[in-house]
Amino acid sequence: AQSVTQLDSQVPVFEEAPVELRCNYSSSVSVYLFWYVQYPNQGLQLLLKYLSGSTLVESINGFEAEFNKSQTSFHLRKPSVHISDTAEYFCAVSDTGGFKTIFGAGTRLFVKA
Amino acid sequence: IAGITQAPTSQILAAGRRMTLRCTQDMRHNAMYWYRQDLGLGLRLIHYSNTAGTTGKGEVPDGYSVSRANTDDFPLTLASAVPSQTSVYFCASSEGLAGADEQFFGPGTRLTVL
Question: At CB < 8 Å, which residues of chain B contact A?
């Protein structure tokens, strides 16, 4: 069975500082990996995804994540955060032969001025 | 604007009452999902549908039922609500029922069962 572990439930950080949100997964088969973001009082929306090819994937708002197969990780990073990045971030995994997506428990990113 | 709508936005319900949460999408997506979101647990899949007329059980289906009479609508029914069903419920859709497909989420329904 697949599982997703987000190692930090909350990450406070000052504006313009770098941030890393950690995600590890377990699976016995090949996987697709996703990061979704949930702004306050909204549904989740896709931030970025890894399907195949380059292990480094980027979003339009400066986030990036790297698929590391040997460490079964898909950590999310941003070199300089903004107040508007305050949100909850969910890592998710699905196997390449199935359809069910397993979500992590979420990491609440709080950016302080 | 295309997307997913959910109703109601929030609801307080007495235990034992029946409740239907509504979900409608206008993207003509084949697959639809219902999740519940609980603090510290993330999102857990309740039921899903890969096309109109078919449904399947997710991770936590007990106490819930769904129907998919057409492509656009996917209501979730609690036949007899219990306090443990207090949660935020999200409906989602995707173009297909494939692990690679992005899921699009509605704004959620906050349900409190007393």
Answer: 4, 31, 35, 40-45, 48, 50, 58, 90, 92, 97-108
